[in-house]
Amino acid sequence: MTFPALLIDILSWAMILAGSFFVIIGAVGILRFPDFWSRLHAASVTESAGMILLLIGMALQTGWTLIAFKLGVIGIFMLVTGPTSTHAVANAALVSGLRPPKLPQTSPQKAAAEAADKNQTGDA
To answer: Is 54 part of any domain?
Structure first.
């Protein structure tokens, strides 16, 4: 095996393993996160990143063939439909009445005053 072929092989397997890692982390996030919005975020971000890495790794394994072209077309299709479907699901959840959890509303001045107060009292 020549050096460029070995380098491409190592790079492709690294991408396949990294993509698999992202997909597994996304699945764990879906199971572990507490609410719908966190789960939706975990699923959409890791799905996009994992899918791209997996497809690039598989395309590097096949070389410049028709299969690599098909993997590229699948990747473009997934890059368009993944975020679109996530947006559609989030919009449907909002329309049906499911609201994201409210974060505490704090002005920047109040947050700075609280941080300064914690520093003076020694609270960590």
So the answer is: yes
